[in-house]
Design a protein that fits this description.
Chain B: This is Protein Abitram. Chain B: It is found in: Cell projection, Dendrite; Cell projection, Growth cone; Cell projection, Lamellipodium; Nucleus speckle. Chain B: Belongs to the ABITRAM family. Chain B: One of its GO terms (molecular function) is actin filament binding. The complex is a heterodimer of chains A (546) and B (225). By secondary structure, chain A is an alpha+beta fold. Chain A has 20 helices and 16 strands. The longest helix of chain A has 19 residues. Chain B is α+β, with helices and mostly antiparallel strands and 225 residues long. In chain B, a hairpin with a 2-residue loop joins strand 5 and strand 6. The radius of gyration of chain B is 20 Å and the shape is globular. Classes of the chains: A alpha+beta (546), B alpha+beta (225). Chains A and B meet through loops of A and helix 2 of B.
Chain lengths: 546, 225
């Protein structure tokens, strides 16, 4: 039994006459019982038909009775199965009707033919073919914009019908096509794929429909509500769903009825499936890396299509990740040594801690130039924190300084006493071609100087992250002030620079299993105050760190 | 390179920059500029060591970036990575005017085509920077040539070797100049008055000087011009 009431009967009749399908009729009657929609389409249609034909039994007033007797029997909804024999007895009209299509004028067939088990099977097959790993899914549907126009037209029809019966029904009470569609399809797709269909999930299956025959239905709106339709650069059609809905809110009933038939014209073709797309939310993988080659760039170095340097940190880390996660792309970001990779549309997203550790080993084995540690899957928010923390964290360096004038040991002692020196750095010339011109305020927290000879000393610095150390030392044409030349009152230059440590707690440290200990990570270590040994400095020759 | 000899290692300029030169800008003798071209194609405009301003005894009276009533290089503002808004300069666009205490006026020119990124405001408050450290803190301007033109901008400029060539020729010509003038004098009627011509060592715009009858008491007088 359908949960329809007496008051619904005139609506049902009017919509049947207009050419609406059974499920759309239920929607306009505000039936929110999901199981009603899931019923077999033919059965549903029959039930509805009989409901419409039933005469009122209750005596609700003379006018009602009288009206009822005058109402001619409704047009039958044509079913696929040819029915023999005519109950109306109107042969001529019937034969004319036979040539009319039975495609719903409102949903264009979406709620008629695209929500059965066969279609669910088709979706399932497409999804399986793409070989994703998932434990649930969210189904999203995109319908052509003209469905809103037709819906509006049918709604006006219903409203008119109700006005005559002095009833009221809000447009918001009407069940949306998408909602009804999902009520039916969710359980079917769930069954086929064996996973629940939820409102939110990491894996999305989107089903798109198109109906080129009626694309022109929206066009009249452009004339009446031109303000809603602004040509967007990247969209093919101006008639987006949002714009059409907005215009329909604005247009008056009269203007609408003038331009668009009410009820809508019957379509001759069925809605067609445009595409079934699968998308998995990106997975974020973070870690720390150490670089052991001074010639390895962070990102691929390509000039004019020609590769300048073999490989890069980015490629060495992301290549194994891309293949393990079967992702289609990535975004690599790092603030110094901690890094994060966003893997786009991964086909495989679930990894255990051991598996991630294996992945880390694969990366480390692939090249001796870098070493990754603390590799782990993280959330998008955590990556946000990494970027935020950039301003707060500090970095420690050790630099070999050359001075033009001869110096003695006590000439550099004053540097040890300088605390929290504020410096202003204009964008250094060596990066000015790719960074905006700006002045950056930075802080040199502490310094410690070790005398070497009359023209050299070693300077350790702990600075705010983002400080250009080389420019602080040689002054960058006086564009960093104050600089070491100003402090030392002589020209100074930097001969070697080593990163000592990056003082930040993210990503969380993952203790290495026993087998990995033994291979030390030099020159970077967590103890900030230990000066690097002589060997550390000497084994890094002058090179491309400059 | 002198720098390397002193310090035993290449200086910042040696490491990153290539030196290019433009001599006798607008025909003015020895008004030489040095363009420091960074490996990332950014150019720093500086005075070459042979520029008159950098010679002994010169002091700066004033520096102005107001090159016309409508245009001040100080007001140049760029924004964003692509440095939009920067004044676009051609090779002979003036950057600033410098007046020395002995009344001479010099114009510094761009020498390269490109977008002006910044001019050195420090030399306005500390003009000595320009005299003491013309190649570093006393730079004049920073220009970003167009990516497509980064190689062609140096076509009109001299390499360090070519520049040194020009400089040594000048020194040689100096000796010749007096002699040249002498010869010219003999060919003209300058002794009687009229116009006398003398040529600069680079044979560019001939300088003309009006001579009064009887002004020349001896030929030697002109030799010291």
């Amino acid at each position: 039994m359908l949960p329809l009431k007496e008051k619904d009967r005139p609506i049902v009749r009017a919509l049947l006459d207009a050419g609406c399908c059974a499920r759309c009729i239920l929607r306009f009657c505000c039936v929110s019982l999901q199981s009603a929609y899931r019923q077999n389409y033919e059965d549903l249609t029959c039930e509805l038909q009989s409901f419409a034909d039933t005469r009122e039994t209750s005596i609700s007033g003379d006018s009602a009775e009288k009206e009822q007797q005058d109402v001619p029997p409704c047009k039958k909804i044509r079913l696929d199965i040819e029915k023999g024999g005519d109950e109306d007895g109107k042969d001529v009209k019937e034969s004319a009707e036979k040539t009319e299509s039975n495609i719903c004028v409102v949903c264009l067939g979406v709620l008629q033919h695209f929500c059965d088990k066969d279609f669910a099977k088709k979706i399932a097959e497409t999804v399986m073919a793409e070989k994703y790993e998932f434990h649930s899914l969210v189904l999203s549907v995109s319908l052509p914009a003209q469905l809103s126009v037709r819906e509006h037209s049918a709604w006006l029809l219903v409203k008119k019908e109700m006005r005559e019966k002095t009833m009221c029904l809000g447009k918001d009470d009407v069940i949306q096509v998408k909602e009804a569609y999902k009520w039916i399809l969710h359980s079917l797709v769930s069954q086929e794929l064996g996973v629940p269909a939820l409102a939110k999930s990491l894996f999305e299956v989107s089903v798109g429909f198109k109906h080129p025959e009626t694309d022109g239905d929206c066009h009249f709106l452009a004339a009446t509500c031109s303000g809603c339709f602004k040509p967007a650069k990247n969209k093919q059609s101006v008639f987006t769903r949002m714009a059409v809905v907005k215009a329909l809110e604005k247009i008056t009933e009269e203007s609408f009825r003038r331009k668009f038939s009410c009820p809508p014209k019957r379509p001759t073709t069925l809605c067609a499936l445009q595409e079934i797309q699968c998308l998995h939310v990106p997975v974020f993988v973070a870690g720390r890396y150490n670089k052991f080659s001074r010639t390895l760039p962070q990102t691929p170095w390509v000039i004019d299509g020609e590769r300048r340097m073999e490989s890069s940190v980015e490629e060495l880390i992301t290549a194994p990740l891309l293949s393990a996660f079967q992702a289609e792309g990535f975004n690599f970001s790092s603030s110094g040594r901690p890094f994060a990779v966003e893997l786009l549309n991964p086909h495989k997203a679930q990894f255990s801690t051991e598996e991630v550790h294996q992945l880390q080993e694969t990366i480390n084995k692939s090249s001796s130039k870098i070493r990754v540690r603390d590799l782990q899957i993280v959330t998008r928010e955590a990556v946000g924190h990494m970027k935020e923390g950039e301003e707060e964290k500090t970095k420690s360096y050790c630099a070999l300084i050359w001075t033009q004038r001869p110096i003695e040991e006590n000439d550099i002692e004053f540097l040890n006493d300088i605390k929290d020196l504020n410096i202003a750095q204009k964008t250094p010339l060596r990066v000015l071609h790719r960074r905006p011109l700006a002045v950056r305020q930075r802080v040199i927290h502490t310094m410690s100087a070790q005398y070497r000879d009359s023209h050299h000393f070693c300077l350790q610095l702990r600075t705010q992250a983002g400080t250009y150390i080389k420019e602080f030392v040689h002054g960058d044409f006086g564009r960093t002030r104050p600089n070491l030349c100003d402090l030392m009152k002589t020209e100074t230059d930097i001969l070697e620079l080593d990163v000592e440590s990056v003082d930040v707690d993210w990503p969380p440290v993952i203790p290495e299993p026993e087998s990995q200990k033994g291979r030390s990570s030099l020159p970077e270590h967590q103890h900030k105050d230990t000066p690097p040994s002589q060997e550390d400095i000497q084994c890094h020759p002058l090179g491309s760190l400059f | 390179m002198e720098d390397t000899e002193i310090r035993g290692a290449p200086s910042v300029i040696d490491r990153y920059f290539t030196k290019w030169y433009k001599t006798d800008l607008k025909g003015k003798p020895c008004e030489d500029h040095c363009v420091l071209q960074h490996s990332n194609r950014i150019c720093v405009i500086t005075l070459a060591e042979t520029h008159p301003l950098l010679q002994k005894g010169k002091a700066i009276k004033s520096i102005s970036y107001q090159i016309s009533s409508a245009c001040s290089r100080l007001e140049n503002k760029v924004s964003g990575k692509s440095k939009r808004g920067g004044q676009f300069l051609t090779e002979l666009a003036p950057l600033c005017r410098i007046t020395s205490t002995d009344g001479e006026e010099f114009t510094i020119f761009s020498c390269v085509r490109g977008r002006l990124l910044e001019v050195n405001a420090d030399i306005l408050t500390r003009p000595n920077l320009l005299l003491e450290k013309p190649s570093t803190e006393g730079y004049i301007a920073i220009i970003l040539p167009k990516f497509e033109e980064s190689k062609s901008i140096t076509e009109g400029l001299l390499t360090r070797t070519e520049y040194e060539d020009v400089v040594s020729k000048r020194a040689a010509m100096k000796g010749l100049r007096n002699h040249y003038w002498y010869i010219t004098m003999q060919c003209t009627d300058a002794w009687e008055g009229g116009r006398a011509k003398w040529h600069t060592c680079n044979i560019l715009e001939p300088k003309k000087k009006k001579v009064q009858k009887g002004e020349l008491s001896t030929r030697r007088q002109f030799l010291y011009l």
